[in-house]
Amino acid sequence: MIYDCFTWFDELDILEIRLNTLDSIIDCFVIIEADSTFTGTPKEARFLAHSARFEKFMHKISYHFVHLPSFSHLPTIEQPWARENYQRNYIKTALLSLAKPSDIVIISDVDEIPRPQSVAKYAKALSQRPSINTPRIEVLACDIFYFYLNNLSFGHYWYAGAKMLTFGDLCDDELLAHWAYEGEARFLIPSLNVGTSASRVRMYNGNKQRVHYPCGWHLSYMGGVDCVIKKLDSFAHQEWRNSADSINATIAHNAATAADCGGGGYILLDSRTEQRALQIMRDSRFCGYKLIALPPQSAMLPPFVRANADKYAHLLLVESSAHFVRLKQRALWWQRKIYRICRLIARFMLSKIGLLPFQVPPTLRKKEIEKL
């Protein structure tokens, strides 16, 4: 059997896309929701409130609503990551009553959706692994889409996407026993990750895994301004945030002022790349990569999204509106340039008949004069 195990906050559209995309290959979806955000704000069981929407999948869903401790004994900067680790590590607890050692387990976040063809291919590879010395974790690296389902982060892939291994290996505390985590300490709380935990598997980057690409879609920061603000308020990466009040104010202000851009101008303060300027996400860079709006029927998008483009229109960036701002800016630039050249020609012609002394406008560049 193949178990698709992921943490979930409240991304209803993304959950629907994932379930429909993987329904043909997954035997059981293990959904782990928590009773608070990673920043400690209490929340209700959102999945239960919307379970009717996923009725056709309920026979293969194992849902778990987990209580997150406060971890008040830890430093403040580690507490969000302790909650994140705890929720993810519950995947292993949930599987103890479900899976056999030979079963295949996928570990990811809900917005890291593997391709069903890749799941089938590497599940077979894990099942037929020739020896214990061969790689025991298969990593399904994803293309990344920010803010819209078709807003591709060009040249950027998510190497920490869905990870596959057998349940027997997940329960083998020796699998990652000799691996020393070299990332930021707060991302992996030692007391919560003794042996082989789901969080250690996610963070692992050693030679016991193989990375395959392209094998999925990472659909991040979806849902519009309100959802982006909610995510910033809730996720573990609080080091990426500036003042909550200032960010909320700038997002709200610029969303309003972008209303003439086709109804899609979701804007965010990108502090990760240390850019304090506001980024218009449909015509800019994010995390250092260019964002490109693909056609809604692009083969790079999940088939279920392409087949239901009308349903997810609020999450798709239409090409015409995607380039509205840029085209408007280019048109204005050309308009000003043509005006200056025409004014220069008019001055030149008038000077020839003695009606006006010829002067080169100081704003006209030398290269523009040479082209005349």
UniProtKB/TrEMBL annotation:
One of its GO terms (molecular function) is beta-1,4-mannosylglycoprotein 4-beta-N-acetylglucosaminyltransferase activity. InterPro entries: Glyco_trans_17. GO terms for biological process: N-acetylglucosamine metabolic process. It comes from the Bacteria. One of its GO terms (cellular component) is membrane. It holds the Pfam family Glyco_transf_17. This is Glycosyltransferase family 17. It comes from Helicobacter jaachi.
